[in-house]
Write a structure and sequence with these properties.
The protein contains twelve helices and no strands. The protein has 264 residues and is mainly alpha-helical. Helix 2 runs antiparallel to helix 4 and helix 6 runs parallel beside helix 7. The radius of gyration is 19 Å and the shape is globular.
Protein backbone atom coordinates (compact mmCIF):
# COMPACT_ATOMS: atom_id res chain seq x y z
CA UNK A 1 0.00 0.00 0.00
CA UNK A 2 1.44 3.39 -1.05
CA UNK A 3 1.40 6.43 1.30
CA UNK A 4 -0.45 8.50 -1.31
CA UNK A 5 -3.24 5.91 -1.24
CA UNK A 6 -3.78 6.59 2.44
CA UNK A 7 -3.98 10.35 1.82
CA UNK A 8 -6.61 9.78 -0.88
CA UNK A 9 -8.52 7.50 1.46
CA UNK A 10 -8.63 10.19 4.13
CA UNK A 11 -10.13 12.60 1.61
CA UNK A 12 -12.68 9.97 0.59
CA UNK A 13 -13.63 9.38 4.24
CA UNK A 14 -14.27 13.08 4.82
CA UNK A 15 -16.31 13.40 1.63
CA UNK A 16 -18.31 10.24 2.31
CA UNK A 17 -19.18 10.93 5.93
CA UNK A 18 -20.11 14.55 5.21
CA UNK A 19 -22.86 13.31 2.86
CA UNK A 20 -25.02 12.36 5.84
CA UNK A 21 -25.20 15.76 7.53
CA UNK A 22 -28.46 17.64 7.12
CA UNK A 23 -31.06 19.64 8.99
CA UNK A 24 -31.48 17.23 11.91
CA UNK A 25 -29.07 18.49 14.56
CA UNK A 26 -29.58 15.39 16.71
CA UNK A 27 -28.28 13.25 13.85
CA UNK A 28 -25.52 15.76 13.07
CA UNK A 29 -24.36 15.67 16.69
CA UNK A 30 -23.91 11.89 16.61
CA UNK A 31 -22.25 11.94 13.19
CA UNK A 32 -19.72 14.54 14.33
CA UNK A 33 -19.02 12.39 17.35
CA UNK A 34 -18.26 9.43 15.05
CA UNK A 35 -15.96 11.50 12.87
CA UNK A 36 -14.06 12.61 15.97
CA UNK A 37 -14.05 9.04 17.30
CA UNK A 38 -12.49 7.86 14.04
CA UNK A 39 -9.69 10.42 14.27
CA UNK A 40 -8.93 9.46 17.86
CA UNK A 41 -9.08 5.75 17.05
CA UNK A 42 -6.40 6.41 14.43
CA UNK A 43 -4.31 8.03 17.18
CA UNK A 44 -4.82 5.02 19.45
CA UNK A 45 -3.78 2.79 16.57
CA UNK A 46 -0.58 4.82 16.05
CA UNK A 47 0.30 4.24 19.67
CA UNK A 48 -0.35 0.50 19.56
CA UNK A 49 1.51 -0.20 16.31
CA UNK A 50 4.45 1.81 17.63
CA UNK A 51 4.58 -0.40 20.69
CA UNK A 52 4.46 -3.52 18.51
CA UNK A 53 7.17 -2.29 16.12
CA UNK A 54 5.30 -3.13 12.90
CA UNK A 55 6.87 -2.32 9.55
CA UNK A 56 5.79 0.73 7.53
CA UNK A 57 3.32 -1.10 5.30
CA UNK A 58 1.70 -2.85 8.24
CA UNK A 59 1.41 0.50 10.00
CA UNK A 60 -0.33 2.02 6.98
CA UNK A 61 -2.75 -0.90 6.75
CA UNK A 62 -3.45 -0.57 10.48
CA UNK A 63 -4.20 3.14 10.04
CA UNK A 64 -6.47 2.32 7.10
CA UNK A 65 -8.36 -0.15 9.28
CA UNK A 66 -8.74 2.50 12.01
CA UNK A 67 -9.95 5.09 9.50
CA UNK A 68 -12.54 2.77 7.94
CA UNK A 69 -13.70 0.67 10.88
CA UNK A 70 -16.88 2.68 11.53
CA UNK A 71 -17.92 3.83 8.04
CA UNK A 72 -21.11 1.80 8.48
CA UNK A 73 -22.11 3.97 11.44
CA UNK A 74 -22.90 6.94 9.20
CA UNK A 75 -25.64 5.42 7.02
CA UNK A 76 -26.81 3.44 10.08
CA UNK A 77 -27.47 6.48 12.25
CA UNK A 78 -28.72 8.61 9.39
CA UNK A 79 -31.37 6.01 8.55
CA UNK A 80 -32.24 4.48 11.92
CA UNK A 81 -31.23 7.23 14.41
CA UNK A 82 -29.53 4.62 16.58
CA UNK A 83 -26.15 2.93 16.97
CA UNK A 84 -27.83 -0.16 18.37
CA UNK A 85 -27.06 -2.94 15.88
CA UNK A 86 -29.80 -5.13 17.34
CA UNK A 87 -32.42 -2.49 16.56
CA UNK A 88 -31.07 -1.58 13.13
CA UNK A 89 -28.28 -3.30 11.15
CA UNK A 90 -24.86 -4.74 11.90
CA UNK A 91 -22.64 -1.69 11.36
CA UNK A 92 -19.55 -3.79 10.63
CA UNK A 93 -21.23 -5.69 7.81
CA UNK A 94 -22.77 -2.45 6.56
CA UNK A 95 -19.29 -0.90 6.57
CA UNK A 96 -17.98 -3.66 4.30
CA UNK A 97 -20.93 -3.10 1.96
CA UNK A 98 -20.05 0.61 1.82
CA UNK A 99 -16.40 -0.12 1.02
CA UNK A 100 -17.36 -2.58 -1.72
CA UNK A 101 -19.99 -0.29 -3.24
CA UNK A 102 -17.66 2.72 -3.21
CA UNK A 103 -14.72 0.72 -4.60
CA UNK A 104 -12.52 1.98 -1.78
CA UNK A 105 -10.27 -1.07 -1.58
CA UNK A 106 -9.87 -1.82 -5.29
CA UNK A 107 -6.24 -0.68 -5.50
CA UNK A 108 -5.07 -2.83 -2.58
CA UNK A 109 -3.38 -6.19 -2.86
CA UNK A 110 -5.74 -9.10 -2.27
CA UNK A 111 -4.30 -9.91 1.16
CA UNK A 112 -4.59 -6.27 2.24
CA UNK A 113 -8.24 -6.18 1.17
CA UNK A 114 -8.82 -9.29 3.28
CA UNK A 115 -7.21 -7.69 6.33
CA UNK A 116 -9.27 -4.51 6.05
CA UNK A 117 -12.60 -6.16 5.22
CA UNK A 118 -12.24 -8.68 8.05
CA UNK A 119 -11.31 -6.00 10.58
CA UNK A 120 -14.22 -3.75 9.57
CA UNK A 121 -16.70 -6.62 9.58
CA UNK A 122 -15.75 -8.08 12.97
CA UNK A 123 -14.35 -5.24 15.08
CA UNK A 124 -17.59 -4.85 17.04
CA UNK A 125 -18.43 -8.52 17.56
CA UNK A 126 -18.56 -10.07 21.01
CA UNK A 127 -15.66 -12.42 20.30
CA UNK A 128 -12.96 -13.04 17.72
CA UNK A 129 -13.99 -15.31 14.85
CA UNK A 130 -12.33 -18.68 14.46
CA UNK A 131 -9.96 -19.76 11.72
CA UNK A 132 -8.21 -16.48 10.85
CA UNK A 133 -4.55 -16.46 9.87
CA UNK A 134 -2.09 -14.65 12.15
CA UNK A 135 -1.79 -11.44 10.11
CA UNK A 136 -5.54 -11.03 9.62
CA UNK A 137 -6.03 -11.69 13.32
CA UNK A 138 -3.39 -9.09 14.21
CA UNK A 139 -5.20 -6.25 12.44
CA UNK A 140 -8.53 -7.32 13.90
CA UNK A 141 -7.09 -7.40 17.43
CA UNK A 142 -5.50 -3.99 16.92
CA UNK A 143 -8.72 -2.29 15.84
CA UNK A 144 -10.76 -3.95 18.57
CA UNK A 145 -8.35 -2.53 21.17
CA UNK A 146 -7.99 0.92 19.60
CA UNK A 147 -11.77 1.21 19.19
CA UNK A 148 -12.50 0.23 22.80
CA UNK A 149 -9.89 2.61 24.20
CA UNK A 150 -11.49 5.61 22.55
CA UNK A 151 -15.05 4.49 23.29
CA UNK A 152 -14.09 4.29 26.95
CA UNK A 153 -12.88 7.88 26.74
CA UNK A 154 -16.14 8.90 25.05
CA UNK A 155 -18.43 7.22 27.57
CA UNK A 156 -16.43 8.55 30.50
CA UNK A 157 -16.97 12.06 29.15
CA UNK A 158 -20.65 11.42 28.38
CA UNK A 159 -21.34 10.08 31.87
CA UNK A 160 -19.64 13.10 33.43
CA UNK A 161 -21.58 15.57 31.28
CA UNK A 162 -24.87 13.79 31.92
CA UNK A 163 -24.28 13.89 35.66
CA UNK A 164 -23.44 17.61 35.54
CA UNK A 165 -26.33 18.62 33.25
CA UNK A 166 -28.96 15.86 32.89
CA UNK A 167 -31.53 18.19 31.28
CA UNK A 168 -29.09 19.42 28.66
CA UNK A 169 -27.95 15.92 27.78
CA UNK A 170 -28.93 14.97 24.22
CA UNK A 171 -27.05 11.78 23.39
CA UNK A 172 -28.78 8.52 22.61
CA UNK A 173 -29.90 6.70 25.76
CA UNK A 174 -31.78 3.47 25.01
CA UNK A 175 -31.82 1.77 28.43
CA UNK A 176 -33.64 2.92 31.58
CA UNK A 177 -31.33 4.70 34.01
CA UNK A 178 -32.22 2.73 37.14
CA UNK A 179 -30.05 2.05 40.18
CA UNK A 180 -30.13 -1.74 39.86
CA UNK A 181 -27.69 -4.04 38.04
CA UNK A 182 -28.79 -7.26 36.34
CA UNK A 183 -27.34 -10.30 38.17
CA UNK A 184 -26.29 -12.06 34.95
CA UNK A 185 -24.28 -9.01 33.84
CA UNK A 186 -22.64 -8.68 37.25
CA UNK A 187 -21.72 -12.37 37.31
CA UNK A 188 -20.26 -12.21 33.82
CA UNK A 189 -17.99 -9.30 34.70
CA UNK A 190 -16.94 -10.91 37.98
CA UNK A 191 -15.91 -14.00 36.03
CA UNK A 192 -14.30 -12.22 33.09
CA UNK A 193 -16.89 -13.50 30.62
CA UNK A 194 -18.17 -11.70 27.49
CA UNK A 195 -21.66 -10.22 27.66
CA UNK A 196 -24.31 -10.31 24.96
CA UNK A 197 -25.64 -6.78 24.44
CA UNK A 198 -29.13 -8.27 24.20
CA UNK A 199 -28.84 -9.15 27.91
CA UNK A 200 -28.40 -5.55 29.03
CA UNK A 201 -31.54 -4.33 30.79
CA UNK A 202 -30.61 -1.05 32.48
CA UNK A 203 -27.99 1.63 31.91
CA UNK A 204 -25.85 0.37 34.78
CA UNK A 205 -25.56 -2.92 32.90
CA UNK A 206 -24.00 -1.02 29.99
CA UNK A 207 -21.57 0.77 32.30
CA UNK A 208 -20.53 -2.51 33.89
CA UNK A 209 -20.22 -4.17 30.48
CA UNK A 210 -17.87 -1.40 29.35
CA UNK A 211 -15.72 -1.84 32.45
CA UNK A 212 -15.52 -5.56 31.62
CA UNK A 213 -14.00 -4.72 28.22
CA UNK A 214 -10.63 -4.74 29.95
CA UNK A 215 -10.76 -8.55 29.79
CA UNK A 216 -11.07 -8.33 26.00
CA UNK A 217 -8.06 -6.07 25.42
CA UNK A 218 -5.55 -8.05 23.38
CA UNK A 219 -2.29 -6.20 24.08
CA UNK A 220 -0.54 -5.24 27.29
CA UNK A 221 -0.08 -1.74 25.86
CA UNK A 222 -3.87 -1.41 25.71
CA UNK A 223 -4.24 -2.55 29.32
CA UNK A 224 -1.61 0.04 30.26
CA UNK A 225 -3.71 2.75 28.58
CA UNK A 226 -6.83 1.56 30.42
CA UNK A 227 -4.96 1.67 33.72
CA UNK A 228 -3.12 4.97 33.14
CA UNK A 229 -6.36 6.75 32.28
CA UNK A 230 -8.02 5.45 35.44
CA UNK A 231 -11.03 4.10 33.56
CA UNK A 232 -11.73 1.50 36.24
CA UNK A 233 -12.21 3.95 39.11
CA UNK A 234 -13.84 6.53 36.85
CA UNK A 235 -16.52 4.24 35.43
CA UNK A 236 -17.10 2.37 38.69
CA UNK A 237 -17.83 5.73 40.28
CA UNK A 238 -21.12 5.92 38.35
CA UNK A 239 -22.34 2.60 39.78
CA UNK A 240 -23.94 1.90 43.18
CA UNK A 241 -21.15 1.48 45.71
CA UNK A 242 -22.20 -1.96 46.92
CA UNK A 243 -20.10 -4.93 48.10
CA UNK A 244 -20.59 -6.48 44.65
CA UNK A 245 -19.06 -3.44 42.96
CA UNK A 246 -16.21 -3.47 45.47
CA UNK A 247 -15.56 -7.07 44.43
CA UNK A 248 -15.58 -6.05 40.74
CA UNK A 249 -12.96 -3.43 41.54
CA UNK A 250 -10.82 -5.96 43.43
CA UNK A 251 -10.95 -8.62 40.72
CA UNK A 252 -10.31 -6.30 37.80
CA UNK A 253 -7.48 -4.53 39.66
CA UNK A 254 -5.90 -7.94 40.23
CA UNK A 255 -6.36 -8.86 36.59
CA UNK A 256 -4.71 -5.61 35.45
CA UNK A 257 -1.76 -6.18 37.77
CA UNK A 258 -1.33 -9.69 36.42
CA UNK A 259 -1.52 -8.62 32.76
CA UNK A 260 1.00 -5.81 33.25
CA UNK A 261 3.38 -8.17 34.99
CA UNK A 262 3.21 -10.55 32.02
CA UNK A 263 4.40 -8.16 29.31
CA UNK A 264 3.90 -8.05 26.39
Amino acid sequence: MEPRGLDELKRWFDDYTNRFFGQDEYVNLHLRMKQEHTRRTCEEMFYLVGRLSLDENQMRVAEMVALLHDVGRFPQFSLYRTYNDLRSVNHGCLGVEVLDREGVLEDLAAEERLWVRTAVAHHGQKALPKGLDDRTLLFLKLIRDADKLDILRIVSDIYRRRKEDPKGFSFEMELPDESRISPQVLNAVLNGQPIEYSRLRVFNDMRLCQIGWVYDLNFAASVERFHARNYLDDLLGYLPQTPDIAEVRRRISGYIDTRLAQQP
